[in-house]
Every structure is written in C-alpha cells, then in structure tokens.
C-alpha cells in the first residue's frame, strides 16, 4: 500500500511533491517551480517528519551516510570458509579468526555486529 498524501495548502506545494514522487531531486524541482531551495528542504523535512531522521536523510542524500563498513560480507564468507576447513578452529576467539582469516584487526563487538548482519 502506498502512502496517503496529505492535502497541501498551496498548489505549488502540491506540484512540488508530485514532481518529487516522479523521481526528480529537490534542488532541480525547486529551481523549476521557482522556490527557494531552503524552503523546499524544509517542506520535505516536515512531510517526512513521522519517519526517523536517518532514513529520511538516507533517501534524500546523494552520498551514502556514515562510515563504510570495516568488515564486509566477503570478509564474513572468508572467515566461515576458514573455520569450516578445520573443525578445531571454531573454538578460537572471533578476534583471532578475523586476524588469521582476513588480516583484519577489529574489536569483539564490531565482529559480533558483522556476524549478526
């Protein structure tokens, strides 16, 4: 089911959100409708106010947010293969497994979060 779009006060605001839903980005839509870009960003913040800020920013951002992952999915696959080759390696701590299998030096909590993904 789609989102129920609220009624906007002005036709310009309605056109703005209609163009956004069609896939246009905020700055070009604002320029096309002759709206100040800061006003356009404020409108989108208010429209997506019920969503968490991080998901709204992630959807509207050009670059990916946050720091890149230290431990990728390929590293996890390498560690699993390294463990499964020798059964006795499964008793080693996660830090040792990451260091010997992939050459990654990471803390225990970081490794747990990566395995949880």
From TrEMBL:
Pfam families linked to this entry: HTH_23
UniProt xrefs under InterPro entries: Homeodomain-like_sf
Protein name in the entry: Uncharacterized protein
Organism annotation: Amylocarpus encephaloides
């Amino acid at each position: 089911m789609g989102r129920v779009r609220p009624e906007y006060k002005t036709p310009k605001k309605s056109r703005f959100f209609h163009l956004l839903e069609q896939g246009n980005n905020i700055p070009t839509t604002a320029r096309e409708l002759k709206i100040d870009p800061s006003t356009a960003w404020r409108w989108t913040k208010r429209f997506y106010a019920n969503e968490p800020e991080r998901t709204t920013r992630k959807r509207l951002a050009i670059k990916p947010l946050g720091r890149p992952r230290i431990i990728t999915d390929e590293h996890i696959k390498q560690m699993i293969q390294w463990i499964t080759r020798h059964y006795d390696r499964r008793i080693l701590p996660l830090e040792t497994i990451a260091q010997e299998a992939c050459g990654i030096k990471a803390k225990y909590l970081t490794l747990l979060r990566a395995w949880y993904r």
